[in-house]
């Protein structure tokens, strides 16, 4: 194994540890947001609080003001964020990225591919808060799930019906496709509109 390969392997391991919260040192992240309504102070404060709750150090806060349809290469905030992600932390760079959602960064298929490539080449992780599964609710406060109820599997963003309950595991099904297993902590009760969407799928 060459020195460069060893270095890349070590960095990938450290980034994985940092993203999962098991890092031996403080994780450095870039806070990024693309806002079109100018409400940047509130979003900056929110993202900074989320980074702080994870005990992460903010390397920089990069804000773009404009439509999400603007290509990544044309956004000065994102160019700064990408540069930091590609820089080693010993030289002032960042281990990863924290943002509200992936869609806020990459609006098109081309940009999503570019985003994935940039993160992969930099061996950096990304945390998208709006895309995360819901935080686990203590059992005493959680309503029990029952067979026949409509729920949303937040890991798949899919509405489904419960066909079996096996302790902390639910078996979910939709009118099309195969059933699948999901942990109770991944799911939330579906709203009326979401439940009705299952009927619409069955009708088609």
Topology:
Blueprint: H1 3-20, E1 28-35, H2 40-53, E2 57-65, H3 76-85, E3 96-99, H4 102-105, H5 109-122, E4 125-128, E5 150-153, E6 158-166, E7 169-173, E8 180-183, E9 187-189, H6 192-203
Parallel strand pairs: 1-2, 1-3, 3-4
Antiparallel strand pairs: 5-6, 5-9, 6-7, 7-8
Short description:
The chain is an alpha/beta fold and 204 residues long.
Secondary-structure element series: HEHEHEHHEEEEEEH
Main structural class: alpha/beta
Structure annotation, total helices:
6
Largest sheet: 5 strands, antiparallel
Please give the radius of gyration in angstroms.
Answer: 20 Å
> How far is it from the N-terminal to the C-terminal residue, by CA?
55 Å
């Amino acid at each position: 194994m060459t020195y460069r390969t060893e270095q890349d392997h070590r960095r990938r391991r450290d980034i994985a540890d940092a993203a999962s919260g098991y890092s031996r040192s403080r994780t450095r992240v870039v806070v990024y947001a693309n806002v079109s309504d100018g409400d940047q102070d509130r979003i900056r404060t929110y993202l900074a609080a989320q980074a702080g709750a994870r005990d992460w150090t903010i390397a920089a806060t990069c804000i773009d003001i404009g439509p999400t349809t603007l290509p990544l290469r044309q956004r000065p905030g994102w160019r700064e964020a990408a540069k930091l992600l590609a820089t080693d932390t010993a030289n002032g760079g960042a281990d990863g990225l924290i943002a509200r959602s992936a869609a806020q960064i990459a609006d098109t298929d081309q940009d999503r591919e570019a985003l994935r490539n940039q993160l992969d080449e930099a061996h950096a992780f990304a945390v998208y808060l709006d895309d995360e599964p819901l935080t686990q609710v203590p059992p005493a406060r959680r309503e029990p799930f029952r067979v026949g109820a409509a729920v949303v599997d937040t890991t798949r963003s899919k509405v489904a019906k419960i066909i079996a309950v096996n302790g902390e595991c639910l078996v979910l099904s939709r009118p099309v496709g195969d059933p699948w297993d999901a942990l109770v902590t991944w799911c939330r009760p579906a709203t009326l509109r979401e439940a009705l969407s299952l009927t619409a799928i069955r009708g088609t």
